[in-house]
Amino acid sequence: MTAIRATNLSKHYGKTAAVTDLSFDVEPGQVTGFLGPNGAGKSTTMRMILGLDRPTGGGVLVDGKPYGELRHPLRKVGALLDAKAVHGGRSARNHLLAIAQSNAIPAARVEEVLELVGLSTVAKRRIGGFSLGMSQRLGIAAALLGDPEILLFDEPVNGLDPDGILWIRTLMRKLAADGRAVFVSSHLMSEMAQTADHLVVIGKGRLIADTSVQEFIGRSSQGYVRVRSPRLAEVAELIKGAELHPDHLRVTGVEPLEIGTATARAGLPLEELTFVRPSLEAAYMELTKDSLEFSS
Amino acid sequence: MMDVIRSEWTKIRSVRSTMWTLACAGLLLIGFSILLTVSIANSAGEPPTGIEAARVTLSGTLFAQLALATFGVLVISSEYRTGSIRTTFMAVPQRLRVLSAKIVVFTVVTLVVSAVSALAAFLVGGPLILGTAALGDPGVAQVVVGTSLYLTASGLFGLALGALIRHTPGAVVSVIALILVLPQVTSMLPGDLGRTVHHHFTSNAGLQVIAPNPDNPLGPWSGYGVYLAWIAVTLVVAAVLMRRRDA
Q1: How many structural domains is chain A composed of?
Q2: Cα–Cα distance list, A92 to A87, A102, A132, B51 (Å)
């Protein structure tokens, strides 16, 4: 079953549109990256999924129901929105215990998730003194409390050190491999390139792309074939549309096999024949350049 | 519903502000009792007896109520300040259940602390220091019980305003204005209508249960009922908005 289904989801504040007519699905067993520049409406969308903000149009279903109709929702959905949105005076253990009790999750599970995120030794400490990395781990512990099938993370790696980033990336891959639906937002394409299977890209609150990572690269900008040869000028004459650079040829719109076959027939030796795929980052920049809230 | 109550109990007992505001209320009540009764005992003239003595021992109520109202505000506004209200509503999307559970836990905690403090304030000031009043004297038990109930209601007023305003300083200022400042100001309202407003205004009505103002037509319990009505109306408005507003 589709984990999250947004249908024509809209959120307007007066005349300002945060999200407009957004439709997408999040499927189980994969990491779905929710990508867009800052201010594109990612957090607003996540809050609407979780029933915190009320859409002004359209709707969103979680496991086939509006979030507000889930009984003990944390057993179905876990989410980390803002790791610092906690009462700093409480200990990590009591913070998690209060959340667990509200959804009839046994207290023993609190110790399990503390162990899982590596916070067991600081369970009694006031969370006001936690570093961002520790807060992030605590937020993930809270999301995992109910052993949910669906997980949402809003910019989980923001401000983390490389160790923390790697840890979260590995965790998300593992959660998806378990068959869970993982929906993670980011404004960094490079981050998504390493973790996501599927991408939902938005800009200015509107859907720009809803596609697999592979398709996304292919669709937004074409790759080219780089050809190097000791007899470069002759190869350039042979291949239509080749662009001659000092030490190589750049060919667009022709498959590497065709080039290889043609040069082989002509008896021209090749030093290199490489299909260069555009980086995800480049593809993303190209797609969202029209939708940046503030362009420099 | 028990799950949510259990969760709210864990929240309320695991922050320091609970201990501080409750200790503050208790110390104000008992402290004022000692201060006033010692000064009476050391001055010439007849000390008050019975129910009058009991009222003197509980004069700290006006200050203790502010500590409890602040506690009430914080129980909900601290969640809005930190943003943890989102975690709360994610766990329990039926927001009125959250509000109800907070009211239940808060009322029980505050009632227990108010009752113990009021009883202690009376026992220390009345039988011990003045020696002119006993718990069995006519009307004394009602004053002690009335004080506990009045203090609990003032705390709930704070909670209601915290839920409505969602902003700690704003809610604290509002509750002080509503139970301490405006009740005095309304005495200046002209005419019969002005007098009725003054008599029915928040703590003017509520305090009838402790020390009835003879000019006020409201009895001890009808006055307390009017005070509860103020709180109930605030809670209903807060509840309607809580359901509607984005968290």
Answers
A1: 2
A2: 10, 16, 14, 49
